[in-house]
């Protein structure tokens, strides 16, 4: 803002508020006001995390989300949340970020709905880490791994409890063993 001198010449010196020292009690009260630990649903999308301080503060908040069940982190340029643990998270939306692997996601043992659309996930390596979770729906649209041969079969074989992939329910051909699919495609010419 303008300097004190400039405000004085404008006749707005009353607009300047002196900075007061923040006491430890006030810091503690401010921390209590945040109350991230009891948050059940949170949307922290579009945070424009361009500065290291912002990223560190963002990660500090994420580490405090011990009770969050629904979390949206869309379009934040995130690349690695592997150090974060979200023990109660059932729904996580991290669309439009910069994840390249399933290993970069937070620990989410209770996940049921995971949306990773428009990231940069190349392979399905690490997807089996979600095998022992209650994951029911997964969205991987607009990721390079979507163009992998037998993409749907590979995902469903890695995650047998999965019911929906990219908004499409599990189909019978998604579960067929590889050899029977090849046999059905063969044509016998006599």
UniProtKB/TrEMBL annotation:
Transmembrane annotation, as ranges: none
InterPro entries: LRR_dom_sf
Keyword Repeat listed: yes
Highest taxon of the lineage: Eukaryota
Entry keyword annotation includes Nucleus: no
UniProt keyword terms in alphabetical order: Leucine-rich repeat, Repeat
Name of the protein described by the UniProt record: Protein tilB
Protein source organism: Dryobates pubescens
Taxonomic lineage: Eukaryota, Metazoa, Chordata, Craniata, Vertebrata
